[in-house]
Design goal:
- There is one protein chain.
- This protein has 170 residues and is of the alpha+beta class.
- Helix content is 42%, strand content 25%.
- It is built from 6 helices and 6 strands, in the order H-H-H-E-E-E-H-E-E-H-E-H.
- The strands form 2 sheets. The protein has a 4-stranded antiparallel sheet. The protein has a two-stranded antiparallel sheet with strand order 1-2.
- Strand 4 and strand 5 form a beta hairpin.
- Helix 2 crosses helix 3.
- The radius of gyration is 18 Å and the shape is elongated.
Length: 170
């Protein structure tokens, strides 16, 4: 099992358990070292999962909201359209992040959930001395999106794909 698959299984396991799971127990279950589990937990936290480390082990904070990360690509001129599409379908754009080959993950919190927030963000980008993060990676970037259900996230994914914003999984 590769690291990405292990982390997906780790999220499912932590989400389904009511009690804390120790690093040692997780390491035995996935047949890896405890240090690998510690690294996996750090990566999952960086992706936005609310995992708490207790003296009993790891616990996933359960949210009433569904969450999904979308990999997208578009131009600066299309940013407002992309954000409006997500928000109009019931999503909240929690963040934007890119994977830089040297710096690793570079993230900015957004918490955009209304047309007013979109307008403020677009105005800030257009009047500021900075550019959007996506410019460091040729337009490729990720958004963590929250919604009330998986169905809403599915609709958002289909809409992003229909508008050619969604980057296909390889």
């Amino acid at each position: 099992m590769n690291g990405e698959d292990r982390r997906k299984e780790l999220v499912k396991l932590l989400h389904s358990e009511e009690k804390a799971l120790s690093g040692g127990a997780l390491a035995r279950r996935f047949e890896v070292s405890r240090q690998v589990i510690v690294q996996d937990i750090a990566l999952l936290k960086a992706e936005g999962y609310d995992i708490i480390s207790t003296h009993y082990g790891y616990v996933m904070q359960k949210s009433l909201l569904a969450m999904r990360t979308f990999k997208v690509k578009h131009t600066s001129a299309q940013t407002e359209e992309e954000l409006s599409l997500i928000v109009s379908l019931g999503g909240t754009v929690e963040n934007v992040f890119v994977w830089h080959k040297v710096y690793g993950k570079i993230e900015a919190k957004l918490h955009i959930f209304s047309p007013l927030h979109i307008k403020q963000f677009i105005e800030g980008v257009r009047t500021g001395a900075s550019v959007e993060l996506m410019h460091i990676t040729g337009g490729y970037h990720y958004h963590t999106v929250l919604a009330e259900s998986e169905e809403i996230l599915d609709r958002i994914g289909r809409a992003l794909e229909e508008h050619s914003f969604l980057v296909p999984e390889i």
